[in-house]
Design goal:
Layout lengths: L1 E7 L2 E10 L5 H11 L6 H9 L4 E9 L16 E3 L2 E3 L14 E10 L2 E9 L8 H15 L4 E7 L3 H9 L3 E10 L4 E7 L6 H22 L5
Parallel strand pairs: 7-8
Antiparallel strand pairs: 1-2, 2-3, 3-6, 4-5, 6-7, 8-10, 9-10
The structure holds coenzyme A.
Length: 226
């Protein structure tokens, strides 16, 4: 689990939690997905993906409304790693509270050999435009690098300009098109590919984007930006 929040002295004022998706999350993820997509996945597709966890990686993003009164230790016994004004818990931890905070975003990918593929990504409409889609996407990029894969690819609707801009920001470019890929309206998909993660200058660009994103999330959370 990764937890991010603005820290003032010893307190975290707000917290976003990134953690692995489990079977228990599927209904809530599907509810957010229905708000994001005109052709959401059937629940069985999530179950199938989560059962094959070796090649797949699915995460959820939670907004912790109780963070105001929360102490970081409630998430586990390990000490959070601080980076600037954010706190991170090691990825892989699960929030152990009986009723975890609501899911506001999700993302997933599969990985085979040298290639990873983003299969889904979405942020609840009420939370869009704050850098959280970028946080989810960056986590997919980081997982691809952690698995030592060279490339990350995805399909995106030709009309989905905002998502394409997010991927372009991370160096992705259009390398092909799949005709009538989306069955709800027969829309074409662009196939976008990352640059090679073996290129040191690409890794430094991603590191730079990560620093900027963390700064931006801190800025938005402190109410200093729109
Ligand atoms: C695509 C999506 C995940 C982006 O998440 P988000 O939280 O709204 O986006 P962020 O605030 O993190 O923005 C990150 C970047 O995305 C791009 N972006 C986001 N919204 C944009 C908009 N309205 N217009 C243009 N670019 C936009 C920008 O490059 C932005 O970086 P910037 O802030 O430096 O300009 C979100 O809009 C979503 O869930 N959409 C519906 C589902 C979907 O289309 N998923 C993608 C399927 S391929």
């Amino acid at each position: 689990m990764i937890t991010m929040g603005v820290i003032t002295s010893t307190r975290i004022e707000w917290v976003y939690i990134l953690e692995p998706m489990t079977l228990d999350d599927i209904d809530e993820v599907a509810a957010v997905e229905r708000l994001c997509f005109s052709n959401p996945w059937p629940l069985a597709a999530y179950r199938r993906e989560l059962r094959d966890s070796r090649g797949n990686y699915y995460i959820v993003l939670r907004d912790d409304p109780d963070a105001d009164s929360a102490s970081p230790v409630q998430y586990g016994s390990s000490t959070p790693r601080r980076q600037g004004r954010f706190a991170f818990w090691p990825l892989g931890r699960r929030d152990t509270r009986k009723t975890p905070p609501p899911i506001i975003g999700f993302a997933g990918m599969w990985h085979v050999l040298d290639e990873a593929h983003v299969t889904t990504i979405g942020v609840h409409p009420d939370y869009q435009g704050r850098g959280l889609g970028e946080l989810l996407f960056l986590t997919m990029v980081e997982e691809t690098i952690r698995r030592n894969a060279t490339w990350l690819t995805l399909e995106v609707r030709v009309s989905n300009y905002s998502a394409q801009q997010l991927y372009r920001k991370y160096g992705f470019s259009i390398q092909g098109k799949r005709a009538r890929y989306y069955t709800d309206n027969n829309e074409d998909a662009y196939i976008m590919w990352s640059e090679s993660f073996k290129k040191p200058d690409y890794i430094s660009r991603i590191n730079d984007l990560r620093r900027r994103l963390h700064h931006k999330l801190s800025f938005v959370a402190s109410g200093a930006a729109s």
